[in-house]
Write a structure and sequence with these properties.
Blueprint (H helix, E strand, L loop, with lengths): L2 H7 L3 E2 L5 E7 L3 E2 L7 E2 L2 E8 L3 E7 L2 E9 L2 E6 L6 E5 L10 E4 L4 E5 L6 E9 L7 E3 L2 H7 L4 H6 L4
Antiparallel strand pairs: 1-2, 2-5, 3-4, 5-12, 6-11, 6-13, 7-10, 7-12, 8-9, 8-11
Pfam families: Cupin_5
Protein name: Cupin domain-containing protein
InterPro entries: Cupin_DUF985 (IPR009327), RmlC-like_jellyroll (IPR014710), RmlC_Cupin_sf (IPR011051), YML079W-like (IPR039935)
Amino acid sequence: MTTADIIRHLHLTPHPEGGHYRETYRSGHTLGPAGPDARHVSTAIYYLLAGQDKSHFHRIKSDELWFFHQGQPLDIILLLQGQPPTTVTLGTDLAAGQVPQAIIPANTWFAARLPHGTGHALVSCTVAPGFDFADFELATREELTAEFPHLTELIGELTLG
């Protein structure tokens, strides 16, 4: 299937951070007090990056797990204070250091891209407690550069304008 076929077949729509997605699961159970602060126990999405698409630096308030399904390897870049950037490559070539799943701890700035900028990668992401756009923060170039001044080039590449 082509990338466009996958987007159509899975009913994916553009995601604010980049790429395409569709929520596939939202637990019927919630955590926390009733009201706007309650969070579903878990959520899941399909997520697809193609060609030069990027998942721009962002963070959420919950742990997130990414699971590789098909396509080209996908680099996930994590920024942790006091450490060099960490890259986890999702894929099926275990001998080359690729892994089929990755864990992004809550409140960690991270981004994703196809290392060769060609083809596509289809993954699933689960979030626990469940994803809510109220917990989503898309990084600004200025904010992230102030926090990680030694990573100006990487931040410039993986943030929006």
